[in-house]
Specification:
Blueprint (H helix, E strand, L loop, with lengths): L19 E6 L4 H16 L4 H21 L10 E8 L2 E8 L21 H8 L2 E7 L2 E9 L18
Helix pairs in contact: 1-2, 2-3
């Protein structure tokens, strides 16, 4: 079958690099796994290194679980959350936003060594290249960034000369 518009069109189209993506999840415990599965597909599409992908999924699980578990349920809605991921050359940024624009709150781990909560952000701090709170038009949220070593581009990017008037 020929293409009448482009009769000599080359083979299949080249896959463009993934730049950013986002998705909203319902605030229930099962959504943390759904968020991990969604992010896993995006990381595979973006060809992220294996170690970076594993760390991303771990940190995403922590921030998403915090949002679901600690979201106030009285009069403020469920713990629904949105994830936005930005892919760059050699690094990525993942943002977790509360769907109801509630600011994140920090909890301190209990001094008891067997306490089960309050250590997630210590894990984020230990693994992420950079992390913290942010404010956007969509509301407040938490983010983390991961960087990895990538080979330099084959050819340097040179800006085009400006046209003189």
């Amino acid at each position: 079958m020929s293409n009448r518009i482009f009769p000599d069109s080359p083979g299949p189209r080249r896959r463009l690099p993934l730049r950013r993506c986002s998705f909203r999840f319902i605030g229930r415990p099962e959504s943390v796994k759904e968020a991990r599965d969604w992010m896993s597909r995006k990381l595979a599409f973006a060809d992220a290194p294996e170690e970076t992908a594993e760390n991303t999924l771990l940190l995403l699980s922590e921030l998403a679980a915090n949002n679901v578990q600690h979201a106030p349920t009285v009069g403020a809605g469920r713990g629904d959350f949105s994830i936005r991921a930005f892919f760059f050359h050699g690094w990525l940024r993942v943002e977790v936003l509360d769907a109801y624009k509630r600011p994140p709150t920090f909890r301190i781990a209990a001094p008891d060594t067997y306490a089960e909560g309050g250590r997630g952000l210590l894990l984020v701090n230990a693994i992420a290249s950079r992390w913290g709170r942010f404010q956007s038009p969509r509301g407040p949220g938490m983010f983390f960034e991961l960087r990895w070593n990538v080979p330099e581009p084959l050819a340097p990017v040179v800006p085009l000369p400006r046209k003189s008037r």
